[in-house]
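call fold(seq) -> tokens
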Amino acid sequence: MTRLPESLKADNFSAVRTCISKHYGERFDGAEIREMNGGGFSYGLLVIDPTTSDPFFLKLSKPGSSGKEGFDPHSATYYMQFLAEHGVPTPKTLSTQDGTLVGDVTAHTDLEGYNVIMMEACVGRSTPYPVKDRDPHYFKYSEGVARTIGQMHAAQTEASFDTTAHPVQTNPLSFQATKEEILKGFGFTGEEDLETLRSELTDPTSETSKYVATTMERLRAHAGNTTRSENRDILMTYADQIKSGLIAQSIDRLIVLQEASRTFGSLPVGICHGDANPSNFLVDDTGKITVIDYDEMFVGPLLWDLTEAVLYGFEITPKEGKVECHPDVVEATLASYGTQRKLSDEELTALPHMVGARGMAYFGRRLANSPLPVCMTSDTVDPKTLNEPMVPPHMMTMPLGYVEQSEMVRSACEAHQKSTHRLSSDVALDISAA
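ret:
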């Protein structure tokens, strides 16, 4: 976790207190301030109202430093207000003394260019029950998350959010980026043509096949040089997985997703939360869910948020070669989302592929950012690198797991589609009978 810069914590948060007074008046003078979580471009502070003892969340955001073109803390905050006006449970943001929702202090050098956003603190927790236990209370929570995502999307059909006044980054999703990360994770350049690569892997005399054979030898040799037993097991397992066809299987999956991804551009588009995992949906003791953290919001296929919920919220994550998921969980997710916004036939067809694409992107990123590519391409590896944390062995089965996962989601989508059409027919019959 990234910690708040020491300069902002100096003298009991003196610079922060000055900024709060400037934008919110004397209300928080003498308030207790505690550091909370932080990321690469934003930080959180808990501020206790000295008069009422009510907790508030002060967010410090620096525009542009996230590396995302078009991200603006102002936009995220005004979008939260837009959703709140349409019944979506989001934190209430306090207006500054000049009537804005964001205290713009980019010129205030004492606060190092951060904007300040004060909002009511949310009481609640995320993922209150372990997924693996399949606790009925967790199912209820999962359905609530899907329903809330549907609410967020449905709000956009009732009114338009002004993206001209409040710019939002455009769709950052890219199959090309996923392909490059996975290929680089296997030690390739990332620019190779998938069909050509797959063909070469079937020819034992090709340079690609020779490279794969050499790779297995390197991994086993490096396993003997690491002093970390966990890494030794990972390197040996990785070599065995490659011998069993891991690279060819991954490329096969990429070829399928490459074709499917061409249809994503025609799906219904809107503002996505962008990070719809359970940690951003807080549930209190009454069961009320509040959505937080809109820093990843973007304009793109609305289906992306539902994909995130399926992957993270319902733990359809392969472990040791198996997919931990039940079709009824996915069906319940689709049904709950559908109470707020109806999914089109095109979206139901695309969802299994988008789930697979999202999962493969996660696999590729973990693989590319690990020491494994270096171990595959180099005969000599720095001992320090050999002892760094590596990708767990079960991640090597993920490409196969995502095939099973996509099929499971496909079955759920087909069941939902039939159910929706049947309900539509029933309604039509009732109307004609009347």
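Confidence is low (pLDDT under 50) at residues 128-133, 424-434.
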